[in-house]
Automatic annotation (TrEMBL):
Protein name: N-acetyltransferase GCN5
Lineage per the UniProt record: Bacteria, Pseudomonadati, Pseudomonadota, Gammaproteobacteria, Alteromonadales
Pfam families documented for this protein: Acetyltransf_7
A GO molecular function held by the record: N-acetyltransferase activity
This protein's record includes keyword Transferase: yes
UniProt keyword annotations, A-Z: Acyltransferase, Transferase
Gene3D superfamilies: 3.40.630.30
GO cellular component terms, A-Z: cytoplasm
CDD domains: NAT_SF
Keyword Transferase among record annotations: yes
Native species: Pseudoalteromonas luteoviolacea CPMOR-1
């Protein structure tokens, strides 16, 4: 198949649609419109112009980087596209991270990322989350 890899984030609507298509939690269009421009690095994979894979790096650009939104349309999974997204992200991180920089992620499929050299931080550290909602 003929894929195009672009080193930028998708449109906010494409981003929201891909998260749902790939089985990730839904994000509001407003959140995507605000958040995507603050991305440090993004990669999108397209087939005939349609978004079929994506990934982003967010953070402060020096001390902390977080890998987020790695997703591939289920119709295209198993073809190495998730690996390609991560190879682009790893290349970016190799060029941007400094000594002492911290790279993190919350992985739904840790085995996939372990194959790419990522390691669980437990038991030394544990991932945590807390939900916040701003009144509209």
């Amino acid at each position: 198949m003929n894929y195009t890899i672009e080193e930028h984030v998708p449109t906010p609507q494409e981003y929201c649609d891909m998260r749902v298509t790939a089985g990730l939690s839904a994000k509001s269009l407003k959140a995507a419109q605000i958040g995507l421009p603050n991305t440090l690095y993004g990669v999108s994979i397209r087939h005939d112009g349609e978004l079929i894979g994506m990934g982003r790096v967010v953070g402060d650009g020096a001390c902390n980087f977080e890998i987020v939104d790695v997703a591939v349309d289920p119709r295209y999974q198993g073809q190495g596209l998730g690996r390609q997204v991560m190879e682009y992200i790893d290349r970016y991180l190799t060029s941007a991270a400094l000594e002492g920089s911290y790279v993190s992620m919350i992985a739904d499929e840790p085995v996939f990322y372990e194959k790419l050299g990522y390691r669980l931080v437990a038991p030394k550290s544990q991932g945590m989350t807390k939900k916040f909602y701003r009144a509209n």
